[in-house]
Amino acid sequence: MSTPTRNRSDGLVEMDATPQQIFDLTFASTVYTVEGALIALCSFPIVIVVVLFPSLRAQKEYVIYAALSFAHGLSGLAYLTSGIYKLVLQAKGDAFILVSRWDCFILTPMNIMFVYSGPLTTIMELVLTIDRFIAISSPIRYYSFTNRYAFRLVGAVYAYQVIPLLVCAYMTSKMRVADKPAYCYLSMATTPDYYKYYYLLIKIFTAVSSVLLYIPVAIQIRRAIINSRGLREDVKLQRIKNVSVTVGITALLTFISAIPDIASFAGAPISWIYLYFILPQISGFFSSIVYTLRQQDIRAKTIALFTCSFKSNALHVTSVHPITGENQGHC
């Protein structure tokens, strides 16, 4: 059944929105704004401390996690700007004007950020889990890697995600019929096939894969600790275990966040709007908190960042590589 429309005095056509539709949009826009701001505020500090402190940049797992946090931060910015954009449209009375899918994509930068950062977050989570699998399966070989390995891996993933973005732009550019409301949810700014068979499917696949891959990681952790010999080896294995358990928690959070995507892909009716708009953000919000609380290096450097205390001798760094040139002094 087609949505009722009406002609405005300015010549534009808009949806004849019901009070419930208006309320739902207001609620969703408010939630987008708040959760987007929280995700960005929780994610970007980890990126900043890894960038600022050489001792953290030397750690392969921290470089990869900083890239994951940056992806979450981009997603948070997308939600923040999307929420503000929708609220402004509502205040102007233009939220339900009919536009094309191409207009929704090209005229709303937040949807471009959604297309890029949405799959990127779950892909990076899978990369982080694969990194843990390598670390626990072949610890001697893993410790021979430098942080160049991490930078190349991150660069390849970020570069790859540009390709689906360009494909999405090309496919959507052919959709010029004005039949979508101007508040432009992501599903309205892409083609149905792209949204379902790439955006949703890749997020589901990578989230589920992260959890499944972590099962052998957990088994390997247990075996490695049982078979460890010598204090030095125990120290290394304890570090691997600590980081790996943290990654396991974040992988589980990613899977929980993917539940609404699984429901959407399966065609389940989205009547549970409150859960649908909040649940996907669990990973972006809590992952950064969990990682900061569990990793002493990140926690210490974050405190140093916010207290402007950059003296390296005041902070304990559990690096297995020699670190030089740490930032000194106060801001």
From TrEMBL:
<feature type="transmembrane region" description="Helical">
    <location>
        <begin position="240"/>
        <end position="260"/>
    </location>
</feature>
<protein>
    <submittedName>
        <fullName>G-protein coupled receptors family 1 profile domain-containing protein</fullName>
    </submittedName>
</protein>
<dbReference type="GO" id="GO:0016020">
    <property type="term" value="C:membrane"/>
</dbReference>
<keyword id="KW-1133">Transmembrane helix</keyword>
<dbReference type="Pfam" id="PF00001">
    <property type="entry name" value="7tm_1"/>
</dbReference>
<feature type="transmembrane region" description="Helical">
    <location>
        <begin position="197"/>
        <end position="219"/>
    </location>
</feature>
<dbReference type="GO" id="GO:0004930">
    <property type="term" value="F:G protein-coupled receptor activity"/>
</dbReference>
<feature type="transmembrane region" description="Helical">
    <location>
        <begin position="149"/>
        <end position="172"/>
    </location>
</feature>
<keyword id="KW-0472">Membrane</keyword>
<feature type="domain" description="G-protein coupled receptors family 1 profile">
    <location>
        <begin position="43"/>
        <end position="260"/>
    </location>
</feature>
<dbReference type="InterPro" id="IPR000276">
    <property type="entry name" value="GPCR_Rhodpsn"/>
</dbReference>
<feature type="transmembrane region" description="Helical">
    <location>
        <begin position="272"/>
        <end position="293"/>
    </location>
</feature>
<dbReference type="InterPro" id="IPR047130">
    <property type="entry name" value="7TM_GPCR_Srsx_nematod"/>
</dbReference>
<keyword id="KW-0812">Transmembrane</keyword>
<feature type="transmembrane region" description="Helical">
    <location>
        <begin position="63"/>
        <end position="85"/>
    </location>
</feature>
<dbReference type="InterPro" id="IPR017452">
    <property type="entry name" value="GPCR_Rhodpsn_7TM"/>
</dbReference>
<feature type="transmembrane region" description="Helical">
    <location>
        <begin position="37"/>
        <end position="56"/>
    </location>
</feature>
<feature type="transmembrane region" description="Helical">
    <location>
        <begin position="105"/>
        <end position="128"/>
    </location>
</feature>
